[in-house]
From TrEMBL:
InterPro entries found in the cross-reference section: NLP, PB1-like, PB1_dom
Residue runs in coiled coils: none
Protein name: PB1 domain-containing protein
The PB1 domain, residue ranges: 179-262
MF terms (GO), sorted A to Z: DNA-binding transcription factor activity
Length: 263
């Protein structure tokens, strides 16, 4: 269980972030008014009061909290989370099944389920967590965690991630999606690496050329293999996102790719 401490709530050191997150939440609600009943809530990550502790004070803020459609199960979940108060999460903190705490540690998106009891009945809810970063000159600073809670679990939250990621980008913020293992074959060599689901085509090219040095300054073609064994080209962002989306929906753990010199 994550470490709980009795802390006086610090005044947020990042007031502009909260105002940006309220805009993100408002736009998300507007776009998803007719979608699956969903709760969006935001955990703020602040430095702990003890400067020697390597971690974050994680606080569920009362704003922004939005429901595109009200459901008592979603409200009950939010209230249960809010009762937890401040938690201090470091790299070695045992967060168990608490996805928000896990996202603080891993700095990548994640999904899962939870159960909530209402009127003597158990209800399964879907959970999706994604970190929020502020771009600094030398690094991406973790400033918060977005949690989506859906009245029924979704098979994939990739579309939700892309939608919220764009809204964050519009506010000058960033995030990092769940990763996929990429297995790339070129000539007689095979390499594997992890690629975020939010990666663009340039990110993929960078990963490939870092591992196949001979491809630098050369024209080459990247293809991926679908479930039927067909080779499909990846030459722009849309192709890569379609490839990743299909892999997630099919619950594939590895995306197979090949690299050939352009003719």
């Amino acid at each position: 269980m994550s470490k709980r401490v009795q802390l006086a709530l610090p005044e947020t050191p990042l007031p502009s972030i909260l105002s940006k997150m309220k805009k993100v939440a408002k736009k998300f609600k507007e776009v998803n008014l007719h979608g699956v009943p969903t709760l969006l809530q935001y955990y703020e990550c602040c430095p702990p009061l003890d400067p020697e502790y390597n971690g974050f004070t994680v606080i569920l803020r009362d704003q922004p909290v939005v429901y595109n459609k009200y459901h008592v199960e979603l409200e009950r979940y939010h209230k249960n989370c809010y009762k937890q108060g401040c938690r201090v999460v470091g790299q070695d903190t045992k967060v168990k099944s608490w996805l928000a705490g896990r996202a603080v540690q891993t700095r990548v998106a994640d999904q899962g389920t939870t159960r909530i009891r209402v009127d003597n009945s158990d209800h399964e809810l879907g959970l999706f967590i994604m970190p929020v970063f502020l771009n600094r000159v030398t690094h991406k600073q973790t400033v918060g965690i977005i949690e989506l809670v859906t009245i029924v679990p979704k098979e994939s939250y990739v579309e939700d991630f892309f939608q919220i990621h764009k809204l964050l980008k519009d506010e000058g913020l960033d995030s990092k999606g769940m990763g996929k293992t990429i297995k790339v074959h070129h000539k007689d060599l095979i390499v594997k690496f992890n690629l975020s689901i939010s990666a663009d085509f340039k990110d993929l090219q960078k990963e490939v050329t870092e591992r196949f040095k001979t491809l630098k300054h050369k024209r080459y073609l990247i293809e991926y293999e679908d479930r039927d064994g067909n080779s499909l080209p990846i030459i722009r962002d849309a192709h890569l996102k379609a490839c990743i989306k299909k892999s997630v929906s099919q619950e594939s753990t590895v995306i197979k790719m090949s690299v050939k010199l352009a003719t």
